[in-house]
Each structure stands twice: as structure tokens, then as C-alpha cells.
Amino acid sequence: MSRDSPTLHGRASLLAEIDARLTMGGGLSLYGPPGIGKTVLLDAVADQAAARGELILRLRPARGERTLAYAGMADLVRQIPPEAVAALAPAARNALAALRQGRPPRTGVPALARRLLLPALLAHCARSTGVLLVLDDAQWLDPESAALIAFAMRRRPGARIRAVAAERRPDLTGHRRAARLVPAPVTEIAVPPLAPDDLSAMLEARGLPCRTASRLHRASAGNPFLALALGSTGADGPAWRPAPLPEAARDLARDLLGPLSAEVHATLLVAALATDPTVTLLRRAGRDDADRELRLAAAAGVVDVSGEAIHFTPPLVAQVLVEETGAGERAGTHAALAAAALDPLEALRHRALRSARPDAAVARRLAAAAGQCAARGADRTAAEFYLLAADRSPHQLATVRLDWLVAAARNALTGGAPALAGRAAEAVIAADAPAGHRVRARVVLIDLAGQALGEMGEMFAAALAEAGDDPALLAPVRLRLTWQAMITGEPDRAAFEARSTAEIARRAGDATSEAMALSSLAQIQRMRGEPAWHDSLARALALPASPAPDWLHYGPHYMAARFALIDDRLDEARAELLRLLAVAEHDRIGEARVEVLRSLSEVATRAGRCREALRYAHRAVQAAQEAGLSPGPTWYTAAVAELAGGSLASAAGFARRGIRASEQEGDNLYLRRNLHALGQAGLRSGDTRAGVAALRRLRDLEAEAGNSDPMIVRWHADLATGLAALGEHVEAAETLAHARKAAEQLGSSPALAGYLDRATAIVQSESGQSDSAVELSTSAAHLFEQLRQPVEQGHALLVAGGAERRRRRYAAARLLIGAALAIFMSADARPWAEETERALARTEGSLAPEQGLTSTELRIAAMVRDGASNREIATRLYLSVKTVEATLTRVYRKLGVRSRTQLSSRLQAIDGGPFPEPTSPA
Hints:
Layout: H1 12-23, E1 27-31, H2 38-51, E2 55-59, H3 71-77, H4 82-86, H5 90-100, H6 111-126, E3 131-135, H7 143-154, E4 161-167, E5 186-190, H8 196-205, H9 210-220, H10 224-231, H11 247-257, H12 262-273, H13 279-284, H14 290-299, E6 303-306, E7 309-312, H15 316-323, H16 327-340, H17 344-353, H18 360-375, H19 379-391, H20 398-414, H21 418-430, H22 435-448, H23 457-467, H24 471-487, H25 491-508, H26 511-527, H27 533-542, H28 556-566, H29 570-584, H30 591-606, H31 610-627, H32 632-645, H33 648-665, H34 668-685, H35 688-705, H36 716-725, H37 729-746, H38 750-766, H39 770-786, H40 790-806, H41 810-826, H42 830-841, H43 855-865, H44 870-877, H45 881-895, H46 900-911
Parallel strand pairs: 1-4, 1-5, 2-3, 3-4
Antiparallel strand pairs: 6-7
Helix pairs in contact: 3-5, 3-7, 5-6, 6-7, 8-9, 9-10, 11-15, 12-14, 12-15, 16-17, 17-18, 18-19, 19-20, 20-21, 20-22, 21-22, 22-23, 22-24, 23-24, 24-25, 24-26, 25-26, 26-27, 27-28, 28-29, 29-30, 30-31, 30-32, 31-32, 32-33, 32-34, 33-34, 34-35, 35-36, 36-37, 36-38, 37-38, 38-39, 38-40, 39-40, ...
């Protein structure tokens, strides 16, 4: 079953391992916590065996059947074919009749006959077909049935009888029951949690948003059942508002906690209420036997203890444990933690949590502690203290309570605690707060939306109304309206908002907001091809602004680094980005760090450091997942890095998911970029038509957005390449001409000329103009060499080699393609190297006599050989019949034939087999 199966995600390799182990003989035992996917795996194993014609015997006892003697055997023998039963001896048939009724055999039936019943039945069935016993939830199998099945398996039933059993984690003594219910030798496999990407694919297949998937992976610890249960509530609500815990999730947590003793529960409660639980802290809090009790909890799959640190797996176990513990016991535990705390602030926190009653003195102490935490950069802790202070404020502190809530919201946002930030901000909006407090709270909620700013229309309208004419309140709201318009693809509105924000921020004396607005204006102007971007960026850089690490990626220095990347000043871009990364590492939201890592990956890709590009890209993906950020931008960067140094399949996967994420959040900016990556993956993997479709959609979106700088998203050359491969030479030439005209008007960097020259060479080669194609692509290769962009240089040499091959100059082709291969190998550009090795093979041996046919001519000739008519060919290739006829005339001339029959014979003689289908523009 494939990775993309609607019912089985991320289990392809595990399923293959299970099948291989069963094929080798012996039995297989799977174990893992409830909901990890054991049943789905067993279903897949059974389906594979059934497809091979094997007899499948399924047994899945329920919890209540553990005390029903022989209930499991009764279910099992009901599935035995009648001919196997008819072959039994009379005594065995009597025993079987009793088992089918779910009761013990009658008195007088020898114990040995009872035990030999199942082996005899299995042996008879195995004479005609393979038999697979599939036993799920072995922990609920009644002991009497388990004894009979274990006896049958110990008698080595033979290679045609196989068994696989699954159970939850081993009991607290470490024993695994399932291993005794399958034949030896036994292979035991722990079913692991789903990886983030696989869980995302599963959740997306069920209609859940991409951004939700990252949060659900953390909450579920990769448990698919739990993730689906959590995703079933609140999937459409804001990401910062915790959804109510569904009962199915609570039941799973209760199942995990159920077998543990009261002493273990008490120890776990201390860990659940602690801020950073450690084994030493538990001992200081009075849990003298913490080591043993944690080992028991770990064996039950409730916690993971790594050194001193304690983590609940999944995290919601701690929530359920706390919520289902009485208030008195919780208060006593907080008192123990307060006494155990070494940090006075932590002790204050636990003393405050003993009671939720209003107390002005306690509230003021908590607020003072929050200020101390904020001063030392502990924003998340500061937010929690501010919220505690607000929650314990009596009515006489109503005014200062609102100040604390606003401070809690801002600190929680910068501290990477969206749930705390959302709770505090919504409390301000729900109260009768002054306009300034409400606007600041709404700005926090807008920032929590990430790339989904297009969905925040009502929040923006309310914030503008409440801000009135106050420039200090208007500037941050207008700045975010600028970003919203950029994301949703409205450049005119974005430019208007950016200019308005810069003016309003200047009046408010807010140099940081002014610099960010001017930086955004420069980005908009650059995308629209307006030379004024130079002046806007210079004005931003001249301001005495210093955006906090959290907003670094909106500042002028980051924008200058991005423009250096766009203009192929790669050394300059890399140096500035590395400097910014040192600052962005202090970003507690995570977005600035993610953006700098993304840009470093793109610089490395273009500079031919493909391994470095992959490393930065996957760091960015991981950081975005941990911070709960919109995944579309990082998936685009990962796709670009994979195109250069990873795999085309992975690149296409990232791009498709990036498209879905961007569509869900209304992010047209990264929708276009992900379409470019998907188009490139399609062209290079041989799916030319799909690649061209993605690039045409990108072209249309760029036109709608009014973007005219072909250096930003460099799709023109790729679209022209794909169109030429499809025989659409006129449209390909028009695409290149349009890009050249825009480049001349904007004075773009020399690299764009190299891209366009290389694409023109491909179009010429596809059109039969191989001589000029060689000259143009070779010139492009020299240009990219001067610009120190080895991957682009190698691509140009590959194009030149392909053109030489069409001129039947095979020695020259091998020289050029070999040079390209050496460059790609040096740059760790693995997919390019693989493509180049295939191109090199086509210059040797039986593939040499291709008589200079273009890829379009090759396709049409192959379809003629296969018996297609001209009209059928035209329909399948989306060409006119006249174009097909003209192409065939050229093919006849090149191959020296006069009819379709002669053409087919000639092709068979040339190739000696299936006609080769070109897989790349080379």
C-alpha cells in the first residue's frame, strides 16, 4: 500500500518489513499504545494475504471478553472451512461443537484431544492454501483460548501457517502476551508514532488544514487515532483557541493511566503541575520513590524520561490527570512544589495556584514577578504571571487588570505561547476596556493568524474603528494591512497601505514601524518593476530603527539581504543573512528565525552548496512546525532545496503540500512560488504536461497581481522549456520575448539573461535549430560560471550537450554532458547528476542513431509506430492535425522513409525495442 493511501499513511516501509518477516517464516508480534495504528496495519497485512489467495482467520477480542472462557476459540473455529471440520475424528468434532457454542468441552473429552483440535484444523487448511492467523488486541483474549492457541503455535505448524498478533504495550512486569501466541521464531516490532509529514498527509486527507497538522502532531505525539480525535473538534476555530478535549481522547488517556497505582498517579501529578518537571524536583517535592514510579509510568507509555527531564507522551495525559484530580489534592501538590522550588518566582507561582480566590496583595506580587521575568527576556513566564495576576485581581484592581492582560498577550506572543496570548487578548476584548487596550489586543490576535491574514477582515475593521485618529494605534494596524494585501495578492492596496503606514508612523514617532512599512513598500515596488524601490529601501535603512528579533524579517536589513539574493549578489546576501541569523536565534516567536533560515537555504541552492541548502531548509521546516507557523513558505523552500540536491519526488511532495497550505490560508504570494517548484518538478521528472499546467497557472496569477519583475519568481524560462517540449514553439517564444522586454526595462542582473538564453537554446533545439542552440547554451554556461552558480552552469552545459547530440556530434555531446556531470557531482546536486547520467547514456550505444529528432518528433514518431492516427495524435498532444502532418514530414525526411509502415520498421531497427521517451529538456 502506498504512502498516499487514504487509509494507511507513513507505514509503507513498516508494512513491507512485516510482509518480509512473515514470508521468512515464524511469527510476528506488534505492540504499541492504543490508537497507534496496529489494527490498520493488521488489516493491510490481511488484505495482502487475501489477495494472494490465503485463508485469513481474524480474531479481535473485546475488553469484556477477557473473563469469558473459550470466547476467542469459539470465534476462531467458526471461521474454519467445513471440509476441514469434516475431516476431524469424532472426539475432535465433539470438542469443536462445544467450542463453537463458546463453552468448555464436555466432561470425558481428553485434554490432549482438546489441545490437538486447533493444530489439526490448521494443518488440514494448509494442505490447500496458506493460512494467516491475525490476532488483534491480544491483551483481551481469554486465558483458556490463549492457552489453546499458544499450544498450536508451539507445535511448529509449518511454513504455510503464519500468524501475526498485536497488543498494547507490555504489562508492568515487561511480559508481552502476543509473542506467545505466534509460532517461533518470533519477531517483535514496536509500532512507532507517525512522523510529522505522514501525520499531516493523513489529516489533510480528512480535510483538516495544513497548519493544524503541526499542532496536532505535538499534541498527539504522532498517535494517529488521537490526532484524528483532537482534530475532530475546533478544526475551524482560531489556532490560538484550545478546542475542548474530545471524550475519545480522554478515554485514551484514561486507558493509559488506568493500570497505574495511586502512588504512581501522585508522582505523575507532581510532574504534570510542575513547569519543568525533573526527577530531582519530584524527590524534593516528597516523591521519594520517584525513580521506580517513573519507570512504571514509562513502561505504560505515559511518560518519557530522558536523563533528568520528564515529558508526558502524549502531552494531553498530563491535562487529563490534572483535570480529573480533586481540587484539594491539586492544592496539596502545589504546596509541595512551592516548598521544593529553588527559584523564588517558581515558589510564588505554586503558592498562587493553590487557590484561585481574588487577593489584591497576591495579584500585585504576581504582576511584579511578571515584570522581572519580562525584563530578563523570559516572556512566556512573564505572560503566565501576568495572567495569574489578572485572574486573582479583585474588583478594585479592574483598571490595572486590563494592563496586565495586554502585557500578558504581548509577552505570550513573543514567548511563543499562542494559547496564552489568545486567551489574554480575548479577555481584553470581552471586557469594557479602553480603545487603546482593545486595539493592542486585536493586533496580537492578527499576529497569531500567521499567513492567514486574509481571514482577519472583521478584526482589522474593528481595530481601525477603535484606533480612530491616534497615529500610535493606527500605525501597527495599517502595517499589518500592508502585509495582508501583499499575501492576498493586491499590490495596489499594499502599496497604498505601506505609504499610509510610513506617514502615520512618522507622525507617531514610531521609527521601527516606519522602517518596516518602507521595507514592505520597497518589496512591492520591486515586484511591480518600479525603480523607486531603491529610494524606499534607502529611506528605511537610514531610520534609527531596531526591530526586535521577532520582527527582524520585516526590517530593512533583511529586505536588503533578500534583494541581494534576487540580484544574484550571493556572497553579500549570505554574509548579511548569517549576521541576521545570530540575532534571529533570540526570536521567541520563531518566524524571524524561520525566514532567515529559508533565505540561507535559497542562497546555498543558487550558489551550488546543495547539501547546505537541504540542511537549512529542513531546519526551517522543523522550526516552523515547532512554532506552529504557516507551513506554505517553508515547504516551498524545502521543495527548491530538494530540486537541487534531494529528490524530485520529495520536491513535488513539498510543493503540492505548499500549494494546499497557501490556498487554505489565502496566501497568493507563496501559492505562486509553490506552483513554480511543482512546475519544475514536473518538467524534470518527465510529466511535462502537468509541469506546464502548474506554470501556466502561475503565469496567470502573476498577471493578476501585476508582478512584472521576472527575477523574483523565475518561471518564464521554465514555462518556455515545457512549452517547447510540447511542440508549442510560438507560445514558448512569446513567453521568452515578454520576459526579455521586462528585463530590459528593469535593468535586471546578468543572471536573468543566462536563464533566458538557456531556455531559448532549448526552444531552438526542439525546433531543429541545433547549431544556434549549442552556441547560445554554451554562452549561458560561461555566464553562470562567471556568476559562480554551478548548478545553473551545469544545466546550461547539459542543454548544449543535448543539442550536440541532436546534431549527431556524439563526441562533443559526451564532452559537454560529462563536464555538466562533474559540476553536479561537486555541488552534491543529486537529482541533476542522475538526470545527466541518463543523458550521457543516450550519447552512447543503440541510442546514438536518433537521427537528430526533437522530443516532439520522437513522441509523434513513437505514436505512429504504435498505430495512432494523425487525429488521435493531435488529440492526445493537444496539437492541430496540420501540425502533426508537418512534423511527420520532417521525421520522414530525417529518417529517410516515405510512409508510416517504413517509419515503424525504421524505428524498430534503430531502437530494437520500446522507443525512448525523453525525460528532460536535454
